[in-house]
Amino acid sequence: MTYIEIFSFVVAASLLVMSPGPNGVLIAKTVPTSGRETGFANVAGFVSAFYVHGALSILGISILLVQSPIAFTFVKLLGATYLFWIGLRAILDAFKGNQSNAEIAAAKKKKNLARGFFEGFLTNVLNPKVSMFYLAAFPQFISTDHTSAMSSFFLVFLHSMINAIWFGGMVLFFDSLASVARNVTFQRWLKGTTGVVFMGFGVKLASLQANL
């Protein structure tokens, strides 16, 4: 794998990471309502999910996922249902009003961190578009020699680090707006907006076709 191939992959992966999607929406919802630490837990979940997708791609399971209409539809609808559920929950929270400070106090920080991690992990791992990216990108950047598996995981590592840097910066950005984010009206508006966006992502994912 040459430096040019690595650079080309980094550019492609960066564009994918920076394009609007559920990850950014989740960060925008999490940090103002649950704090910076939970936002970083989201990012850790994103990164972990990349290694799952990378391993599945290297093992060839993702190819079966795309080539099997039943398997693809199952995973697609599972991911769409999860995104729709997150959106619906955010909208319900918006109607119920702002959470009290006690709900995000230190006593519940551990629970919030775990929930943040799994929300980030599931948002990525249940998205077949990520697997489809690996299926489309890997053949272009990896040779078929004995080092292909190592090269594949190296690219997964690069992709995950780009993701961590981009969304880590986004966590810090939203955390800098903490004084605004504590406003009750702002939090209700934010939850309602992100809820609608997540439900839209769920509907969009449900209509996704495996056309690679």
Question: What do you see in this structure?
Answer:
With 212 residues, the protein is mostly helical. It has one domain. The chain contains ten helices and no strands. The chain has helices spanning 3-18, 22-34, 36-59, 61-67, 69-96, 109-125, 128-141, 148-176, 178-181, 184-206. The protein starts with a helix and ends in a 6-residue tail after the last helix. Residues 99-108 have low confidence and may be disordered.
Write the layout of secondary structure elements.
Blueprint lengths: L2 H16 L3 H13 L1 H24 L1 H7 L1 H28 L12 H17 L2 H14 L6 H29 L1 H4 L2 H23 L6
Rg calculated over all Cα atoms: 18 Å
Estimated helix fraction: over 70%
Strand content: under 5%
N- to C-terminal separation? 23 Å
**Subunit organisation of the chains:** single chain
Number of domains: 1
- The counted number of beta strands is 0
Order of helices and strands: HHHHHHHHHH
Low-pLDDT windows of residues: 99-108
Count of runs of 4 or more consecutive helical residues: 10
* Largest sheet: number of strands, sense, barrel closure: none
Short characterization:
The chain is an all-alpha fold.
Sum up the structure in keywords.
10 helices; about 210 residues; about 85% helix; mainly alpha; globular
